[in-house]
DNA sequence: CCGTACACGTATACACTGTAGACCCATGAG
DNA sequence: CTCATGGGTCTACAGTGTATACGTGTACGG
């Protein structure tokens, strides 16, 4: 059962961590494994299949966080969400991949199931659980991806400069919020606050249809 | 002022719509414009700059939806969100780009300002507005990207088959939700429902600190 | 022991990609 | 007339993923 495939995935992960996802080329990967590029294709169907396998591995690492069935549902969801963010912080390249394919690998399905059972335990009516699962996971992955891709980062211009591109009359919101916008932002705290708001939303969804 | 650049962007957008983002190569683009690949570099710094310009153009098209200042704030947010989803439905390739770079182009800043003013009008305390703007936009973009990338699609396996990979004892949530999971999902309706939940969340955030 | 099948690896080649550098030429200004 | 400049071309380089054909060691059935 060829540990060779695992070795290849290890190498790919290492390269991605060290020099970014773009640096994971079949040639570079082959060299790292000490083999010819074409040899990789004996163990991996495609490059895209290789990337899928990579995210599968990360998802597996993320799983145990939400599986502790003794804790209350909200805490399990928090743990899963935090683990997800942690993964994309450690492996920024993974964020964009999380959006590409649906949850097809066994581990991904398991992660979805953790959210399902948490929502059920929260009292969300069964008909609403799938939608809320997608809402929650979309937000969590979206936040992680935004952070990893730098969408929340100041970018080439600082807030002041960004506003300066336009007459301040065109940006009433920005000019009124100016003092708050210049503050450095603590994404960790923001993530926690967002989580609380979302969990609160789940609770009201459960209260609206008082079943169970 | 060289309409040539606009002509290039038009061609790039056309190629992306017809054959996907990957088909937008400098060579293909050049051929479409009727020119040599290297000629493009007189009008566009980079390929990445070209892509940035493309999303800028889409964002500009999306702007007017939320700018109608006569409507109530919730309706303006709904309009902006729907327009965003509409854009990524018409141009699925754009979704992944929306996550890459922060809102630096003037049009993007304008879009953020629309959300700012809507949240302020809703009564959200100023200190909370920037966070909630990121929360809302993260979800909307995340939903659009998920839909465009097929994360919500059934994928290679239908729900039944996906569950079959694992013993149903490992997936208590799936087995309990089975009847709902086999239903075909209407993403349009789901998006609307999600929007309502999120707007409700904004309202409670506004009520919590009854300022203004 | 022999032959054969198979897993694994290699070598070569093809069709792409983005883009650096040198050159060319028409147009308009001084 | 001269000269600069904006736009365009050609060539070339260093990459990319991967199809195809070919080798080779190891295991196993006869």
Description:
Two copies of one chain form a homodimer. The first copy, chain A, is built from ten helices and no strands. Chain A is mostly helical. Chain A folds into two domains: 1-44, Arc Repressor Mutant, subunit A (Orthogonal Bundle); 62-152 and 180-212, Tetracycline Repressor, domain 2 (Orthogonal Bundle). In chain A, α4 (73-90) packs parallel to α7 and α7 packs antiparallel against α10 (187-208). The termini of chain A are far apart. The model of chain A has no long low-confidence stretch (mean pLDDT 89). At the A-B interface, α6, α7, α9 and α10 of A face α5, α6, α7, α9 and α10 of B. The first copy, chain A, binds a DNA duplex (30 and 30 nucleotides) through residues 2, 4, 25-27, 35-39, 41-43, 46-47.
What are the main properties of this structure?
homodimer; 212 residues; mainly alpha; Arc Repressor Mutant, subunit A; Tetracycline Repressor, domain 2; 2 domains; 66% helix; DNA-binding
Biggest β-sheet of chain A: count, sense, barrel?
A: none
The average pLDDT of chain A is 89
- State the CATH class of the largest domain in chain A: Mainly Alpha
Distance from N terminus to C terminus of chain A (CA atoms, Å) equals: 47 Å
Oligomer: homodimer
Q: Please write the string of helix (H) and strand (E) elements of chain A.
A: HHHHHHHHHH
Strand content of chain A: under 5%
CATH architecture of the largest domain in chain A: Orthogonal Bundle
Q: Would you count the extended β strands of chain A for me? A: 0
Which blocks of ≥5 consecutive residues of chain A have pLDDT under 50?
Answer: none
Secondary structural class of chain A:
mainly alpha
Might you state the CATH topology name of the largest domain in chain A? Tetracycline Repressor, domain 2
Give the overall silhouette of chain A. flat
| Whole-number count of domains of chain A | 2
Work out the largest interface and the residue count of each chain.
A-B, 65 and 64 residues
The CATH homology group name of the largest domain in chain A: Tetracycline Repressor, domain 2
Rg calc of chain A: 21 Å
Helix count from the secondary structure assignment of chain A: 10
> What proportion of the residues of chain A is helical, as a percent range?
55-70%
């Amino acid at each position: 059962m060829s540990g060779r495939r695992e070795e290849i995935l290890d190498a790919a992960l290492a390269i991605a961590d060290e020099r970014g996802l773009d640096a994971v080329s079949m040639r570079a990967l082959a060299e790292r494994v000490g083999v010819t590029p074409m040899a990789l294709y004996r163990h991996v169907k495609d490059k895209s299949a290789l990337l899928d396998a990579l995210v599968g591995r990360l998802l597996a690492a993320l799983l145990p966080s939400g599986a502790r069935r003794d804790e209350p549902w909200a805490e399990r969801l928090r743990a899963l969400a935090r683990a997800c963010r942690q993964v994309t912080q450690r492996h920024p390249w993974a964020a964009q991949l999380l959006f590409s394919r649906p949850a097809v690998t066994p581990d991904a399905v398991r992660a979805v199931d953790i959210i399902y059972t948490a929502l059920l335990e929260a009292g969300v009516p069964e008909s609403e659980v799938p939608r809320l699962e997608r809402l929650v996971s979309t937000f969590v992955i979206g936040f992680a991806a935004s952070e990893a891709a730098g969408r929340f980062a100041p970018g080439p211009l600082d807030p002041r400069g960004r506003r300066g591109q336009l007459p301040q009359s065109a940006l009433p919101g920005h000019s009124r919020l100016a003092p708050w916008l210049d503050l450095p932002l603590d994404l960790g705290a923001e993530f926690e606050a967002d989580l609380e708001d979302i969990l609160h939303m789940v609770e009201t969804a459960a209260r609206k249809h008082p079943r169970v």
